[in-house]
Amino acid sequence: MSQIGRRYFLRRKDRKSFFDNVARALHIDPEGSFGSKPQIEVVETSRHKIFLINGLSLVAESDGDMFPTLFFEDHLSLLPKITVDMGAVQYVCRGADIMAPGIVEIQGEFEEKRLAVVLDERHKKPIAIAQSLFSSKTARTLKKGKIFRNLTYVGDDIWNVAKAP
Q1: For the chain, how long is the longest CA-to-CA vector?
Q2: Start-end ranges of CATH 2.30.130.10 in the chain?
């Protein structure tokens, strides 16, 4: 489990750079999603940099990749959906990447390196955010191997920071 290393508020002058990075990575209008002057707190762990926007854990960064958290519900509804069978859920929720045999359904079109939300087969609840290693066209044809890289999942340090009192 990752430990919280540092916690600080983003300076006003750094907000524009943050908004530019979010717009580029998530393909959204940050001001439309967060407002023009949100309070942005940064929580650094050994694995992630987590951005709490107006108190909500909505965006994270790891290894230079910025992505939405499982709590950014407005954005999750816009992403392609990957449904995994219930046997894969326990592994995905421990950080495993998404393998072809565990995928039940792929909804939406995407290119390589695009984000997708991973859902469990029974409840259709989001359990992870992953990055595609292939386009949707190619991913649908593969029967073995890794298809998505797991970025964040239920129970990781991002989840725990968001759930902390």
Answers
A1: 48
A2: 75-155
- Helix, strand or coil, per DSSP, at residue 78: coil
Domain 4-71+158-163 has CATH 1.10.260.40: no
pLDDT of residue 165: 62
DSSP state, residue 9 = E
How does 96-135 read in b/e, with b if 16+ C-beta sit within 10 Å? ebbbbebbeebeeebeeebbbbbbbbeeeebbbbbbbbbe
Query: What's the CA gap between 155 and 128, in Å, rounded?
Result: 10
Give the class (CATH, top level) of 75-155: mainly beta
pLDDT tens profile 3-35:
677 899 999 889 899 999 999 999 899 999 998
